[in-house]
Amino acid sequence: MSITTLGYALLTLLVRKPLSGYDLARAMKNPIGFFWQARHSQIYPELARLEELGLVTAETIAQRDRPDKKLYTITLDGQAVLAQWITEPAKPASERNELLLKTYSLWLADPEKAIKLFQDQKELHQQQLAQYEQILTEYPQATPLSPDSPDFGSYATLLRGLSYERGYITWCHWILTQLESYVDDKRSQNEPPHEHKYSD
Amino acid sequence: MSITTLGYALLTLLVRKPLSGYDLARAMKNPIGFFWQARHSQIYPELARLEELGLVTAETIAQRDRPDKKLYTITLDGQAVLAQWITEPAKPASERNELLLKTYSLWLADPEKAIKLFQDQKELHQQQLAQYEQILTEYPQATPLSPDSPDFGSYATLLRGLSYERGYITWCHWILTQLESYVDDKRSQNEPPHEHKYSD
DNA sequence: AGACTCATGTAACCAGTTACATGATTGC
DNA sequence: GCAATCATGTAACTGGTTACATGAGTCT
């Protein structure tokens, strides 16, 4: 019985502060969701496994007006295991992007519907970007974060998210200019095609 | 029995030209691998399913000096199913990036080892970028590709790959500057910390 | 009365990875 | 002789998703 990546993800959260399974499920949605996701149905069994391995301890907390909860705390063993894992070589992310798959066959699609597809996708990423930019404002300007503070990790991953979303949006935008000029040119065949240069 | 995303990925390749299972496995590594991956053990059963559904036909080809192969050809039904799928809303890619997970807990790591981690990662992405840039040179400059040509899809996905790798490398580089200046400052405590500005 | 949040679990299923299995030909 | 490429499959397992299950308290 060895430790899974999800296990490390949970330790990553618990090393900052003790949390319940429910809290962890929420945290796996919100700050961690951009780079690792998991549902509660996967989290609860994984926590039991971490406890068995002695990497976390659980304490049942009775609450008034709310159901009891189990608060999980990382052990010294857990911290050591996590710290060791961080600097081990990371497996390359196996990308699986449905939109790119669709883009590869875009020539088969009705251009009007393709435009709709990319407009929707662009908007989704613009919303995500707006959320990241909101989070960014919560960080102090001009005060550089030190790599030995927990906030450095949150900030660094946020920067990656911002860059990713900006690149994605730019790319969607470029596709849209291509599709739109194609549709325009089809409508009025006598004019020459416009030029749209792509740069990230 | 419905069609999986891998099924669409295979149709995406077969709509361009008929291929064997072996060819498809290779194509899933090379041009498609950046956004969708699959091993041959998943591909062969999936092809059988596509055949059952009448979306492809198989023809056994005898070869001299080599084992027989089964050449798969997309049917009209297959083309219709694929074309329809393309413009349906795409599910957002569920990101799973181990390096970002590690970055989130970077404060726990030994800085020297962390530098090694990001140098290795940066190099991997630089190699990937170099490969994409090589492929880019094979496209004609200044002649804009029309969205109704199959090459448009290949080119568009390539652009996304280039942008992604460039952003990733820039980000790795920024992390490295942070880690290195942190290590430097620890060595000579009297000098003030350097400034490194991040921009994508 | 109905929906939402807090709270924790299990079961069935599906997608994807690793390993097992076979066998001919080509190049070093 | 040994590894690599071509060629096609199956089996076992693991990671992850969807659905099932329960129940108290709050808000509209």
Automatic annotation (TrEMBL), chains A, B:
Residues of the Transcription regulator PadR N-terminal domain: 10-83
Domain Transcription regulator PadR C-terminal, residue spans: 96-180
Protein name, per record: PadR family transcriptional regulator
SUPFAM superfamilies linked: Winged helix' DNA-binding domain
Any matching Pfam family: Vir_act_alpha_C
